[in-house]
Type II secretion system GspH family protein
Amino acid sequence: MNILNDKSSKQSGFSLIELVIVVTILGLLAVTALPRFLDVTDEAQIANIEGMAGGFATGVSLVRAQWEAEGRPKVNSKNSVVYDGIRLYLTEAQDSPIVSPGYPVGDAPSDSNSASMTSEKCIKVWNGILQNPATLTSDSSEANNNRYFVATTSADLCIFYLVQTLNRNTNGAIEDPSGSTTVGNNFVYDPANGRVSVNIN
């Protein structure tokens, strides 16, 4: 009878030392893995802007290549090409400042001058060369409803900002980056030479 009581009185479970070891291991895993998970958002935002810039640069190159392949066509004496069903007007050659011909600047004959880039012209290029492009605005009050925000500089560059990376005021609205490349993650399009460059801030 004592043997039966001895067997039934024994309980299985973790000893205090085993619990301490398990808690220590979980603590070490948390310390090493948690910072990695915190960096995922930043990495996703960087990948987003780099991917969009890559797609945009490819579109610019394809427009130029099609224009060259078709023998540099003109419409109303302006460089122009129909790209994916949309007529785009392209830069005209210029010596001062130097402008290379054949890069997209808009969808109207008056857009062919790269020395007068506006946010509206940048939006036309964005929508003209990208298939199913991300939403884009030039109005800072509407930026929170869009993925990208566009501004221009005095050097006639288009700057496309990832809205998630822009500074916000106390009301949660974005602060207009005013054409700065040192604010938020962005990429810059220079229609004078077709160059697209990425800035991670």
In short: The longest strand covers residues 78-83. The chain has four helices and nine strands. The chain has a mean pLDDT of 88. The radius of gyration is 28 Å.
